Amino acid sequence: MSNPSLAIVIPARYESSRFPGKPLAQLAGKPLIQHVYEQAIRVPNVDHVMVATDDIRIHQAVERFGGVAQMVTVPCRTGTDRVAEVSRALSSDVIINLQADEILLSPDILNDLINPYLKNPSPMGTLRRKIEIHDEFLQPSVVKVVTDEKGRALYFSRASIPHTRDQPRQGQAAPFAWIHLGVYIFQRATLFQFTELPTGTLEDAEKLEQLRALEYGIPITVWETTQRSLRIDTPEDLVEANRSWDHLMVGPG
User: Fold this and answer.
1) What's 23's domain CATH number?
2) What is the reported pLDDT for 172?
């Protein structure tokens, strides 16, 4: 298919054990969900951008800033399952799941996902970025990914992988360590196949939905980006993001 139609769906739930109401929390005078949405609509050649939510407060907030939102009324295990529910009403060939707490500092991040996908389509794809800060390598909230030589995911983990047995860390992450970014691109059929699979053992243990795909044999291609993003997991993360926002936004994009 030479020119597939693309949609970006942003799953956003109100309840969160670590940060209830996170999509509506204020960053630089806007709710987090607005920051994510406004970067998504800047991505070229995307036909639809939509928020998928199970909470009327988020739905109303999106409509207030002029965005498009769809309520999800059926129970869903994960954000990708919510994405699939609203995607059934879309005709898009390719669907991108953009996490509501992955604040893109530039829409070029999504170009780094879409452009290689269009050149070499994969059933499912995602992004990685070099880990440069040792603390990120150690934090369970920072998901790491390892791949084979062709860029196909071998495993995702909250643990510090890969472990370097014979090389002292000396305050730095391994030079071949990668952070996984919370964005996925799916062929339409693969998205619906994914949501029909039972929860995997590894998925349940790590609380990482992408492990469901690996456990059941869906290959995930992982492309590289050097673009920065801002992940908000806790209220403390938000305080720090507000403190450093002007510095983060300096530069192109």
Assistant:
1) 3.90.550.10
2) 55
